[in-house]
Amino acid sequence: MQNLELIFFIAFAIIAIYSAIMMVTRRNPISSALFLILNFFAVSGVYLLLKAQFIAIIQVLVYMGAIMVLFLFVIMLLNLHDENKLSESITYRKITAVLLSILLMGLLFVTFFFGFMGKKSEIHETAGTIGKAEFLGKELFLKYAFPVEIAGLLLLAAVVGAVVLAKKKFE
Amino acid sequence: MDNFITSLLGENILTFVLVTVPVIAFVAVFALYAVLGERKISAWMQNRVGPNRVGKGGVLQTIIDGLKLIQKEFVSPIRADKYIFNLAPIIVFTAAFMGFAVIPFSSIFIGADLNLGLFYFFAITSLGVIGLMIAGWSSNNKYSLYGAVRSVSQIVSYEIPTALAAIPVVMLAGSLSMQTIIHEQAGGILNWYIFGGPGAISKLILFPFMLTSAVILFISTLAETNRTPFDIVEADSEIVAGVHIEYSGMKFAMFFFAEYAQMFAVAAIVSTLFLGGWQSPFGDLIPFLNNPWIQFGWAISKGLLLVFVQIWLRWTLPRLRVDQLMTVCWKFLIPITLIDLFIIGLYAVL
Questions:
Q1: CA distances (Å), B105 to each of A23, A129, B194, B327, in order?
Q2: What is the residue range of A25's domain?
Q3: Tell me: the pLDDT tens digits for B36-56?
Q4: Is A109's pLDDT higher than 80?
Q5: Do B62 and B96 fall within a single domain?
Q6: Which residue out of B137, B150, B243, B330 would a mutagenesis test of the A interface target, given it has the greatest number of A Cβ atoms within 10 Å?
Q7: Do both B165 and B206 map to the same domain?
């Protein structure tokens, strides 16, 4: 099984990196969004290999099934065509982007080189239980009940706000 | 993984293939004969004969139709986005088929008995909407786009009552694993969750609420598979055929295949949650019928029964209007499931 996991990890990693690069370089926003979906899929596969089943499925359900659907919906309805010209005309944005990317690359390199070099990677014994629904449910609704309630209230406020805005338009 | 193929051969790549092949074969055969069955049943309901030329009584009709579709040229509209246009049917079919991984066919056969099986099913099948949406958009046709917009609003809305109607069973069984949910319903027809699950008190108190949940789950899964009376995504008389409009040949056949595969998948989910899955309705009265190989028959026949109800509804009820569809979901199904969930949750806590 160890070999199988390695094969799956390499496959998911290659898909994730490839789709991330493609997402950034595509001109067509719909293609970008689809590559982002592929990227989420590969990342959820990596979560599964780390024995975080719950997070893997949440990744599929929330990010791929809900958020990206809304993204695609908005892109489709807006029909972005002038985006191409816009990005070509602004040069300082490109320069900033390149600088920031180099900075991020350096940061990641330093972190991984000094943080993980020579250390054997392994999944902690408790990882299997943490990834389960029972554990997460107990933690969220007993230990962290208050933050969960607050987050729920914020989302409710957002929903009410959206309904109010939509209602004004139709009256 | 607890199935007989794994126990015979151990866990390796070969077993993954051997577990998948019979499921694919089953889906293919089911889709072929469900199309024929639908045409025959609709003919029967409308006092017609139905397909009767190819083979005896038309049994080979869909095979011939499939052969015809394979021979067709691969046509893509000139102004369509070719890659996305060709990708869409693949996404729709893959999403419909991936759900079968957690459908229990017997106590000794399930693709993968995940401890989050039910959750996985809802997550994976919700990906089909991406395929429908990019199919509608990439066709570059206004009717397709309308179909795509409708499919998103419909499927995203109906996911809520689907999940809410399934949660009572999860609360009572205390697990999201499909096999555990079925094992909880052992001991005959009266222990199925549609009748309130095992335990005399729970039957007395929960029967009406579990029945409502089961009916709502069936209705909302019907909406998720875009079947009449919820087929405003296709709605032939308003938007021609919705997202399918520019598709022909095998690409169209894949949408069709996905629809029928999903019909069986959601029927199997409803039967797993509320009708005891592969459990025999006679319980321990006739021990012979609890044989693991006969359980295949129970699981599949319960699924087919629900597929028959889906077909029956399609040829009996008229299509809902878009606003009626949303009203049914948000003003009726969701509040009712919330009340159900509250009462059953109260019972489960006490």
A1: 40, 27, 19, 36
A2: 1-84
A3: 888 888 888 888 887 888 777
A4: yes
A5: no
A6: B137
A7: yes
Taking the C-alpha atoms of residue B109 and residue B294, their distance in angstroms, rounded to an integer, is 12
Which is higher by pLDDT, A86 or B48? B48
Specify whether B120 is located in the same domain as B52. Answer: no
User: Terminus-to-terminus CA distance in chain B, angstroms?
Assistant: 34
Domain boundary among B17, B44, B71: B71
**B114 → chain A, closest CA residue:** A53
Residue in chain B nearest A53 by alpha carbon: B116
Separation in Å, CA B304 to CA A29, A111, B42, B99: 42, 56, 16, 17
Contact B134 A30 (CB under 8 A): yes
Residue B75 burial (C-beta neighbours within 10 Å; 0-12, 13-18, 19+): exposed
Structure tokens at A119: 């250390």
* Chain B residues within 8 A of A132 when measuring between CB atoms: 115-116
The answer to whether residues B225 and B318 belong to one domain is: yes
The mean predicted confidence, pLDDT, of chain B is 82
Q: Which of B91, B156, B331 to mutate to test the interface with A (most CBs of A within 10 A)?
A: B156
Residue A95 maps to a domain:
no
d(CA B268, CA B156): 21
**Average pLDDT of the residues in B292-299:** 82
- Structural domain range at position B117: 79-349
User: Which chain B residues have any C-beta within 8 angstroms of a chain A C-beta?
Assistant: 11-13, 81, 83-84, 87, 114-116, 119-120, 122-124, 126-127, 129-130, 133-134, 137-138, 145, 148-149, 152, 156, 159, 176
- Of A4, A61, A132, Cβ closest to residue B126: A61
Contact (CB<8Å) B119/A28: no
Global pTM reads 0.82
pLDDT of B213-247, one tens digit each?
A: 888 999 888 888 877 777 777 766 777 777 777 78
**Is B177 in the same domain as B123?**
yes
Contact A61 B12 (CB under 8 A): no
CB atoms B152 and A69 under 8 Å: yes
Domain stops at, among B71, B94, B112 = B71
* Closest to B233 in 3D by CA, of B334, B162, B307, B156: B156
Contact at CB, B119 and A37, closer than 8 angstroms:
no
Domain tally, chain B = 2
pLDDT tens for each residue of A124-164: 666 667 767 778 888 888 888 899 999 999 999 998 988 88
